[in-house]
Specification:
The chain has one domain: Clam (outer membrane lipoprotein receptor (LolB), chain A), CATH 2.50.20. Strands 1-8-9-10-11-12-2-3-4-5-6-7 form a twelve-stranded antiparallel beta sheet. The chain has 207 residues and is an alpha+beta fold. 28% of the residues are buried.
Length: 207
């Protein structure tokens, strides 16, 4: 589990849904809908709740924070609880703030850069091209669920699959689950989502 926590220290997931899912009959049509939505989204601001499930813990650990995304290649991922931690991605530049100061540890920066490409794919919708993931499409009455399985053997050591839930009406991403095993996963739930609002570039350069 520690590998998963390390690898997705910056990322997003969600809890399961009680409704069952069935395979989508026309996956190409769903892919096209989600891709069009992604391409018309230039900015995202949202609150998130984090739940970490691990076979090492007696009980799940929880946290919360705020997310900002802006075209092109800008992300602010800010944990507020249980402790303040901020990750800034601004193009090729990646910075980490925790324990009251900027972290310039070489190993930490390498880890962050490894997930940078993955984060951008997930927020921009580029994962739909299936260059790095096999994508499987499911649905229930209210939700499309996409299951992404890494093609890269290195990535699959940390993440066996990613589940992404999209609201059928708005096509907004509501849930994302990063899974190492069914017992070991990180879950984030988004709320107060604003699309295409004004976000200052300073959010991606200043802690």
């Amino acid at each position: 589990m520690h590998r998963l926590l390390l690898f997705v220290i910056l990322l997003i997931s969600f809890g399961g849904n009680a409704q069952s899912y069935t395979k989508v009959k026309n996956s190409a049509a769903v892919k096209d809908k989600i891709n069009k939505q992604a391409k018309t989204t230039s900015a995202i601001a949202a609150d998130f709740k984090e739940v970490i499930y691990s076979s090492m813990y007696n009980n799940p650990k929880t946290g919360n924070g705020k997310l900002m995304y802006k075209e092109a290649n800008k992300i602010r991922w800010e944990h507020i609880l249980p402790k303040k931690q901020i990750v800034l991605i601004n193009g090729s530049k990646v910075r980490l703030f925790e324990d009251g100061k900027e972290v310039k540890n070489v190993t930490s920066n390498q880890i962050i850069k490894k997930v940078q490409s993955l984060m951008m794919q997930l927020f921009s919708g580029d994962f739909l091209n299936e260059k790095e993931f096999n994508v499987y499409y499911y649905e229930n009455e209210s939700t499309y669920r996409l299951v992404l399985k890494p093609k890269n053997s290195r990535m699959s050591k940390y993440i066996s699959k990613i589940k992404m839930d999209f609201d059928k009406k708005s096509l907004e991403l509501k849930k994302m689950i990063f899974i190492e095993t069914e017992a070991d996963k990180i879950v984030y739930t988004f709320s107060s989502v604003t699309l295409n609002g004004q976000i200052s570039d300073s959010n991606f350069t200043q802690f």
